[in-house]
Amino acid sequence: MATAVLTPDQNAVIAEIFIAAPPARVFQAISDPDQIPRWWGQEGLYRVGKSIADVRPGGKWRSEGTGADGTSFFVEGEYLEVEPPKRLVHTWFGSFHPQNTVVRWELTPQTVSALHPSGPRKAGTGTLVRVTHEGFAGNLKSAQDHGEGWKRVLGWLEAYVTKPE
């Protein structure tokens, strides 16, 4: 189950999830433009249908999709840091949120037991995925909306990378 919190200054959303898959697999899913449309979205909500990415510092990326009401949307940006399979940092500008923000994906390998201080988790080896999305200062509603969005996105990511091939 993904969690999301706002930083005290309300400038950033920090979302986390433990995924029972290695960091390399998670990194592949978040950076491969052929895989992103396979998992980012849900019928009746919104769905990415097309993604392009030049995954290198300075490279551009763009995802396009359709909302529940049939309205087209896009999200795009530029990669700032690319360090497989640990970190991916990029700018984020969406047609539904015309404010430049920055998204930092941090993938940390973890071995956990079934009893974990933060709650029950699957035993075994996997990845702690932390997404920090910052740049919301002065826009509390957008930060809150993105927090809810990141919880959904991380859930979709987990379902995708942990399903049998």
Model description:
The protein is an alpha+beta fold. The chain is 22% helix and 49% strand. The chain has helices at 23-31, 36-39, 140-162; strands at 3-6, 12-19, 41-42, 46-53, 60-67, 72-83, 87-94, 97-112, 115-116, 119-120, 124-134. Strands 1-2-11-8-7-6-5-4-3 form a nine-stranded antiparallel beta sheet. A hairpin with a 3-residue loop joins strand 3 and strand 4 (46-53). The longest helix is centred in the C-terminal third of the chain and has 23 residues, at 140-162. It starts with a strand and ends with a helix.
Highlighted features:
22% helix; alpha+beta; two-stranded antiparallel ribbon; 165 residues; globular; nine-stranded antiparallel beta sheet
